[in-house]
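Re-run with default settings, no changes from the original entry. Doing this only to confirm the output is reproducible before filing.
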Amino acid sequence: MKLAYLGPPGTFGEEAALRFAPEAELLPCPSHAAVAAAVDSGMADAGVVAIENSINGSVAETLDILIHETQLTIQAELVLPIVHNLVAAPGTRTEDVAVIYAHPQSIGQSRRFIERCFPKAQVEAALSNAESVQQALRRGSDAAAIATLRAAELYGAEVVARGIQDSDNNVTRFVVIGHGHPADSGRDRTSIAFTFPEDRPGALAAVLNVFAGRGINCTKIESRPTREAFGEYVFLIDFEGHVDEPATAEVLAEVRAICAELKVFGSYPRWR
């Protein structure tokens, strides 16, 4: 099995990929969009992408890929504890740090530490946590990065501070995307996206009432812009159940009748 992930080696994406399939051949990609493209094109059998963080919320890039850019389905999910560390070139003094490189999600998850300890430092976004280490090392002794301990070890950086995330309960939910339709495990989650033919009072409530009427638990609801017009949104719901279950199939049929478009991202075993 060839498994794509947000690379290079040393990212949380790599850790999630290794946890999901320890024996897989890993394919590092420069972005979540590239992960999806690798699976779409057959370069990889499946891909691992971050979709939600307990501090920062949903990963908009991943949601937009699932909504607009691919027909791949979610095959599985896993939740990974996230520990951020400040790393730098060996010998770097904290008082000299003028620039901190990090992935945007890591910046958001470590904001309090940065504001308190490095209020004057310039924060620069990197494509991944591993890339942030490489950028800091290239810049030299006035730069640091937010990264994993594995990334620090791989690229020869020194750990300046450990566990700098804003919460000790920091976790990220990853999903595995691929082709096909996972079988009903008896403990599944289904993710969908939908739009309405027009903006009218009670449209969203009508959809939620369909789930409530069938006794199906919705575990998450949010929205993303349609990209077509300002003020128009795609709504996304995660709920308990599998598309092969009669109750779920009936709910989806009712929801489809209310909506302009309905896209099922997939039914897959719940992490917990």
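The two ends are 25 Å apart (CA to CA). The chain has nine helices and 15 strands.
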